[in-house]
């Protein structure tokens, strides 16, 4: 294990001091945003975690080793490599990537696994994967949901991405026993929008409550993590009514072009970026930064 995990000096020091650490994923960099904005966002998210009093640990597999904390040159290489040339790693492909000495970006599921190996309990991202629309035919349900049910990491997201079937995503999370905790509001947020029209199963307004709830799960012997859904700041949101037709159009194009499996989410995010003239990306950036701040507060409450 020791030669499989590579810690950045900053993360190594934080581990030694028991300082709060926030894990960050890399698929959002390689498959979720265009270059060079992805690189700028990756740096800004790390800076935001530091300003909020925690240490950022961006996770990726580089040449078969799991890096916990990336240096700037590695971040730059990952961000500038076209997405189709970097593996998109979930639970199913993580071991193969390591065994073959390859390089890959970690999704929410794989980042949770790596964070847990590294003893990191809190992780910030944009939006988790979930149940895709039409899943009753395609069976496309993100491995992120199952991971939340088995790996003890608190994931802070702005909801599941609104390209998904949100009611079905909530149902699956309930079946899997994953607590879905809305931070500071009653509704489940919908990624680019604060509202989804769906009530969140749980609500907490204080990061210390979220930390206590994670610790209670461990005490009760409940395996798995928690999903904290943190609404995008009001000033940055794109209202739900604006997003609905945009998402519908992107979904229709994906269906007519036969986009499937791992390509679905990156395709939809890219099309929605084009259809909104970049506004969806601005919102995505704002919500990720907001999640990084809340995750840092939760990590501090746990430390
Ligand atoms: N959050 C974002 N953009 C992204 C993702 C999250 O703001 O691109 C990534 C995460 O890595 C998540 C993945 O795990 O999208 C979901 O992919 P899929 O639907 O194929 O499971
Ligand atoms: Mn999928």
UniProtKB/TrEMBL annotation:
It catalyses: D-ribose 5-phosphate + uracil = psi-UMP + H2O. GO terms for biological process: nucleobase catabolic process. It comes from the Bacteria. Its cofactor is Mn(2+). The keyword Cytoplasm does not apply. Mn(2+) binds at residue 140. Catalyzes the reversible cleavage of pseudouridine 5'-phosphate (PsiMP) to ribose 5-phosphate and uracil. Functions biologically in the cleavage direction, as part of a pseudouridine degradation pathway. HAMAP family: PsiMP_glycosidase (MF_01876). Belongs to the pseudouridine-5'-phosphate glycosidase family. This is Pseudouridine-5'-phosphate glycosidase. It comes from Paracoccus laeviglucosivorans. The gene is psuG.
């Amino acid at each position: 294990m020791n030669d499989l995990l590579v810690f950045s000096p900053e993360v190594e020091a934080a581990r030694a001091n028991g300082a709060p650490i926030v894990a960050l994923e890399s698929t959002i960099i390689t498959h979720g945003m265009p270059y060079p904005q992805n690189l700028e966002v990756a740096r800004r998210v790390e800076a935001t975690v530091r300003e909020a009093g925690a240490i950022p640990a961006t996770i990726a597999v580089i040449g078969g080793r799991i890096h916990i904390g990336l240096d700037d040159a590695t971040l730059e290489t990952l961000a500038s490599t076209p997405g189709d040339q970097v593996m998109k790693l979930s639970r199913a492909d993580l071991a193969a990537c390591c065994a073959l000495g390859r390089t890959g970006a970690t999704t929410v599921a794989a980042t949770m696994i790596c964070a847990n190996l590294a003893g990191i309990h809190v992780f910030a991202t944009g939006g988790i994967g979930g149940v895709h629309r039409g899943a009753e035919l395609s069976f496309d349900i993100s491995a992120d949901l199952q991971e939340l049910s088995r790996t003890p990491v608190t994931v802070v997201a702005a909801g599941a991405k609104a390209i998904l079937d949100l009611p079905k995503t909530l149902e699956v999370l309930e079946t899997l026993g994953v607590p879905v905790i809305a931070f500071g509001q009653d509704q489940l947020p919908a990624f680019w929008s604060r509202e989804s029209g769906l009530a969140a199963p749980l609500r907490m307004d204080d990061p210390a409550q979220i930390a206590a709830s994670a610790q209670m799960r461990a005490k009760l012997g409940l395996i798995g993590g928690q999903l904290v859904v943190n609404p995008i700041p009001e000033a940055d949101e794109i209202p739900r009514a604006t997003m609905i037709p945009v998402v519908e159009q992107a979904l229709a194009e994906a269906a007519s072009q036969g986009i499937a499996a791992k390509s679905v989410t990156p395709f939809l995010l890219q099309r929605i970026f084009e259809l909104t003239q970049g506004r969806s990306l601005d919102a995505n950036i704002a919500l990720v930064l907001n999640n990084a701040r809340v995750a840092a507060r939760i990590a501090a409450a746990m430390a």
